[in-house]
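Hi all, posting the design record for the shared folder.

TITLE: backbone redesign
STEP: 1 of 1
STRUCTURE INPUT:
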């Protein structure tokens, strides 16, 4: 992968992919494990996400074996929740291939077919990939090219059977403000993986200005993130984010051996 020197919208983001990965963790931790709002069976998708992220960060291919093993270990309640998990697991692959022109759409689609994603999930993955590539371009989120995006200022309807389009509408309607978006999604009973997608899209829409900094700081002071996140702490999550960002820039990098 060649260094991407022609994309100032990304290069000028001083924290690279750190805000995105921190938002994934913050959104997932919005409610406690085992609380009435979160069944314990929902607690295992972060490990699958880390499996893909670590492979991408170290330059290992995410083939059908790695993908299937990680996904099959995730317990989901509905087919829609499974699609959300797929999108979250695919996020590292999307990040290291993202660009405003969408030049690598075919790469992501070919990879999705390789690991066995269905036709409808491939369509959603393509929408997700395009949104990631348009980070910070507000008009793109509410243009005629994106009929599922809600124009600025309109309320986003929330339902229990929400899909990816509803996630995009919610984030667009609140202009990328993560805190109110996550609060509304949580009140509606969306699963933690949907909240994580809300967090990612909020960070993409508004950049680091959309981060709920007080909550992140509180979590960062608690030490490691527990077995759900393979005992990562925020410093190690930042290392993972930096390694992914370097991969996106075309720089061979890796993670400390103890994280592998």
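Okay, here is what came back for every position:
SEQUENCE:
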């Amino acid at each position: 992968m060649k260094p991407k020197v022609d994309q100032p919208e990304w290069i000028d983001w001083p924290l690279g992919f750190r805000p995105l990965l921190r938002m994934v963790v913050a959104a997932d931790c919005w409610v406690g494990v085992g609380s009435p709002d979160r069944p314990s069976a929902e607690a295992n998708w972060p490990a699958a996400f880390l499996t893909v992220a670590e492979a991408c960060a170290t330059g290992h291919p995410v083939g059908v074996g790695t993908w299937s093993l990680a996904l099959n270990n995730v317990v989901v309640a509905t087919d829609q929740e499974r699609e959300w998990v797929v999108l979250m697991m695919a996020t590292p692959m999307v990040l290291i291939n993202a660009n405003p022109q969408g030049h690598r759409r075919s790469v992501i689609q070919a990879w999705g077919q390789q690991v066995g994603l269905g036709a409808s999930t491939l369509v959603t993955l393509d929408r997700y990939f395009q949104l990631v590539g348009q980070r910070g371009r507000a008009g793109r989120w509410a243009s005629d090219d994106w009929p599922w995006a809600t124009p600025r200022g309109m309320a986003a309807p929330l339902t229990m059977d929400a899909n990816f389009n509803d996630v995009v509408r919610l984030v667009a309607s609140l202009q990328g403000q993560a805190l109110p978006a996550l609060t509304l999604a949580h009140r509606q009973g969306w699963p933690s993986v949907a909240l994580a997608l809300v967090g990612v899209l909020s960070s993409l829409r508004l950049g680091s200005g959309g981060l709920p900094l007080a909550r992140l700081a509180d979590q960062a002071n608690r030490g490691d993130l527990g077995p759900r996140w393979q005992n990562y702490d925020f410093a190690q999550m930042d290392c993972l984010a930096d390694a992914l960002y370097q991969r996106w820039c075309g720089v061979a990098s890796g993670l400390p051996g103890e994280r592998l």
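COMMENT: Residues 79-97 form the longest helix (19 residues).
Let me know if anyone wants the other runs.
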